[in-house]
């Protein structure tokens, strides 16, 4: 099966390049979604949003240590959500700070000393997949700093404070940034330390690496790797999950005698029963 080849490749990556850690940032309050509680705890097809995110990393066989950065008020709920995955991956829970930047910094300090590559991911992006996680590791190893994203499809306008257009950049040079954003640990640690020393605040991790003088390589992520920010995004998330389930059902009905399909069917049925 292709999965066996992927697992072998992941093991080779670890052996040759050192330990891989991931930081999932889930310390926000989700005020824009208007739920009255942290949006990553919102129900999405029977699981909290954050559990879908954790599952992708914990079951990928690509990550050695997962640091979940939380709002202290959510600790009890997060402990229960993480419990099914503690035998699959080394999982550390760390309190967040006053801002996302502070929360990531806390997560970096919680990583084991032997960590070589760090992936930083938004907890509210539950549709990251194994392919994007693997590419994040590979590009960080090659370039030192990398960012998942998508080339812009629409024309982008740069405006002033009054929304008057100042310029129109060449669309070929514009990308929409996603997460994971991945780095060699020494690079992103230095970037965060310099930002704290100089009072630099960035909207993502790559911006801090850029400010510290490091080059960041963009690579293509996934159009489904959306960040759930509004109530409408949750509806889109429900659609994506239903679409995936329907696709698996069609495959297993059509090719149920193929060995790979038998395994997929077994996994899907087990997952549907919990």
**Structural classification:** alpha/beta
Helix content: 40-55%
Number of helices: 9
Number of domains: 2
Tell me the β content.
15-25%
Give the low-pLDDT segments: 1-8, 258-270
Radius of gyration, CA atoms, in whole angstroms: 19 Å
* Overall form: globular
CATH superfamily of the largest domain: Spore Coat Polysaccharide Biosynthesis Protein SpsA, Chain A
Multimerization state = single chain
* Main sheet properties: 7 strands, mixed
CATH fold name of the largest domain, please? Spore Coat Polysaccharide Biosynthesis Protein SpsA, Chain A
Count the strands? Answer: 11
CATH top level of the largest domain is Alpha Beta
CATH architecture annotation name of the largest domain: Alpha-Beta Complex
Gap between N and C termini, in Å? 26 Å
Strand order of the largest sheet: 5-4-1-6-10-7-11
- What's the rounded overall pLDDT mean? 87
- What pattern of helices and strands is seen along the backbone? HEEEHEHEHEHEEEEHHEHH
């Amino acid at each position: 099966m292709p999965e066996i080849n992927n697992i072998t490749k992941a093991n080779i990556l670890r052996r040759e390049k050192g330990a891989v850690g991931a930081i999932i940032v889930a310390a926000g309050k989700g005020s824009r979604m208007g739920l009255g509680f942290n949006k990553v705890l919102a129900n999405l097809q029977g699981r909290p949003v954050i559990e879908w995110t954790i599952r992708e990393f914990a079951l990928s066989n690509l990550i050695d240590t997962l640091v979940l950065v939380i709002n202290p008020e959510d600790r009890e709920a997060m402990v229960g959500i993480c419990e099914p995955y503690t035998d699959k991956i080394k999982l550390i829970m760390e309190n967040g700070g006053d801002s996302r930047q502070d929360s990531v910094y806390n997560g970096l300090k919680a990583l084991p000393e032997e960590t070589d590559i760090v992936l930083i991911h938004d907890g509210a992006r539950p549709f990251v997949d194994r392919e994007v996680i693997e590419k994040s590791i590979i590009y960080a190893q090659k370039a030192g700093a990398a960012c998942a994203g998508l080339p812009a499809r629409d024309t982008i306008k740069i405006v002033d404070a009054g929304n008057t257009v100042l310029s129109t950049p060449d669309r070929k040079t514009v990308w929409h940034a996603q997460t994971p954003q991945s780095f060699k640990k020494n690079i992103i640690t230095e970037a965060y330390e310099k930002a704290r020393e100089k009072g630099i605040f960035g909207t993502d991790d790559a911006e801090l690496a850029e400010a510290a003088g490091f080059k960041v390589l963009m690579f293509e992520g996934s159009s489904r790797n959306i960040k759930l920010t509004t109530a409408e995004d949750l509806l889109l998330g429900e659609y994506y999950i239903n679409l995936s389930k329907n696709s698996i059902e069609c495959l297993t009905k059509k090719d149920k005698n193929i060995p790979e399909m038998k395994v997929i069917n077994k996994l899907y049925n087990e997952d549907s029963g919990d």
